[in-house]
Amino acid sequence: MLRDFRRRNPRVDVEVTVGQSAALVRRLKAGGLDLVYVRREPGIEDGRVVRREQLIWGAHPSLRFDAEEPVPLVTYPRPSHSRQSAIDALEEAGRRWRTACTVRDITGVLAAVRAALGVAVFPATMMPGDLERVDGALRLPPLGVLEFALLDDPAASRPAVEALSAAITSSPLV
Question: What is the CA radius of gyration of the chain?
């Protein structure tokens, strides 16, 4: 997608930055980024929703725990949409939970879940194939839907933002 964009727009300089959504939105609002593709967190009203994704519970196939035990969570530190979604769903269902592992990025989530330390929340199409969807097997409550959105800096070059937005929204990966 980016290669095609650069080929069609050779005069547009593109730098890609990867990070957590809240940090990217802060940088956008401070004028440090022109366009961001982020999870739309609660409280982020602006932007254009590009896709919606069901959240699911994922775990390593070897994870076992008794249904009466607190659910072991692998999660990001506060504030985190996936963390809050998990806690809200469990508490609403009357399930006890505990933090089994707190991580800073997806690499940490994957390592902890693969080590069978606990369950984590994933967008349905983003859970790796070596992990299993476990909401039914572990009797975990349903989770909500996650939105992914494009937000841009109104002061940014409109032709560049519009061209890159079009390239992102037309990608089969989005």
Answer: 18
Question: Residues, the chain, total?
Answer: 174
Distances in Å between the Cα of 159 and the Cα atoms of 11, 36, 90, 164, 165 are 11, 15, 45, 9, 10
Q: Give the pair of three-digit tokens for residue 59.
A: 């775990």
CA 37 to chain centre: 11
Separation between Cα atoms, residue 42 and residue 28, nearest integer Å: 17
* pLDDT tens-digit readout, 8-62: 666 666 677 777 777 888 898 999 999 998 887 656 677 888 888 899 999 999 9
Contacts of 17-26 spanning 24+ positions with Cβ under 8 A? 20/76, 20/105, 21/81, 22/79, 25/151
**Contact between residue 153 and residue 26 where contact means Cβ atoms under 8 Å apart:** no
Concatenating the DSSP letter of every residue in 57-82 gives EEE-TT----TTSPEEEEEPPSS-HH
CB 161 within 8 A of CB 34: yes
Q: Any alpha helices (H) in 74-173, and if so which ranges?
A: 81-92, 106-114, 158-169
User: Residue 171 in 3-state DSSP?
Assistant: coil
